[in-house]
Design a protein that fits this description.
There is one protein chain. By secondary structure, the chain is an alpha+beta fold. The strands form five sheets. Strands 4-5-1-12 form a four-stranded mixed sheet. Strands 6-11-10 form a three-stranded antiparallel sheet, covered by helices on one side. Helix 9 packs across helix 10. It is built from ten helices and 14 strands. It is an enzyme of class 2 (transferase). This is holo-[acyl-carrier-protein] synthase.
């Protein structure tokens, strides 16, 4: 099942598309995604939304081998994306994924059996508030032990980073379940040994059906991964899963799969993979577009994407 554990990330600060390049990348996605991308006013927000969806389609295509035009991705009422498909893959009995974006990075994580939650944070210094004023706005979301760790972390900058570490883990936890931040986060306490061997304690009880990882993604960004039991998913998300009940042995296998390192992708790579697939498989150095009878040399197609 290890092939179903994927971690991809894109640094969008390295992609500065022209309007034609952006429109071309957007055109590779199904029409129903377009309004959720173009509704943003700022280009940086549009880029994050677009790249998030490109990552979803590219990862599903690579891991499950589903042709792009057959991939159907929807969202629960809480906004969690999921893949809609009928066939149950025995190698990946419960394939699911989660995305996150903040600052310069957009990322996606997938799991073959367990729930997966992903959250990126960029510890930016607040605008008009001091760091302590900013952090205190969120004090109600932390346990007494967590709050003590945050405010006693050291300098103001160290306090800010410590705050974001805990916040990122809490976000990844609720995103894995698909519940949203309505969850009582102060009842969710994260313990760790120098930010390794991270585990969650809820209402005084350690929850052994969860595993967590926290690491640096690059340029000061932090990323958290949560892996948990499918039976803990929110009802709306649980209905999208292929299986919820697993025997102890099978679930233990999924829970303790090695955590993968993040693979850095570029937007050009995502567009190339999706664009070429949309135009057909170039087995004879020819690219056949599904929507038309047009035939283009594969090399010319690569040039087309560079020129857009």
């Amino acid at each position: 099942m290890e092939k179903g554990v994927e971690r991809w990330a894109v640094d969008i600060s390295e992609w500065n598309p022209t309007s034609h390049q952006f429109s071309f990348a957007l055109s590779l996605l199904p029409q129903h995604h377009h309004s959720s991308i173009t509704r943003f006013v700022k280009m940086e927000d549009r880029k994050r939304a677009l790249v998030s969806r490109l990552l979803q389609y590219a990862l599903v295509h690579q891991v499950l081998g589903i042709p792009f035009h057959q991939i159907i991705i929807k969202r629960t009422i809480e906004g969690k994306p999921y893949l809609e498909y009928d066939e149950v893959d025995l190698e990946f009995p419960n394939f699911n994924f989660n995305t996150s974006h903040q600052g310069d990075y957009v990322a996606i994580a997938s799991e073959p059996l367990c729930l997966v939650g992903l959250d990126i944070v960029s510890p930016v210094i607040p605008g008009k508030e001091t760091i302590l004023e900013f952090v205190r706005n969120f004090s109600q979301y932390f346990s007494a032990w967590e709050w003590d760790c945050i405010v006693n972390a050291g300098t103001s900058d160290e306090i800010l980073v410590e705050f974001y570490r805990y916040w990122s883990l809490k976000e990844a936890f609720v995103k894995a379940m698909g519940t949203g931040l309505a969850y009582r986060l102060d009842n969710v306490e994260f313990r760790h040994t120098n930010w390794t061997n991270i585990y969650v304690n809820m209402n005084g009880e350690d929850k052994n059906e969860w595993r967590f990882w926290l690491s640096e993604l690059g340029k000061g960004h932090l990323v958290s991964i949560a892996r948990g039991h499918p039976r803990l998913a929110a009802e709306s998300y649980k209905r999208t899963l292929k299986r919820v009940d697993f025997g102890d042995e099978e679930y233990h296998l999924g829970l303790h799969l090695p955590n993968a390192s993040f693979k850095l992708q570029t937007v050009e790579q995502l567009v190339s993979v999706q664009g070429r697939a949309d135009y057909g498989i170039p087995t004879d150095n020819k690219v056949h577009r599904f929507e038309a009878d047009e035939v283009v040399d594969a090399e010319k197609f690569e040039g087309l994407m560079r020129e857009q």
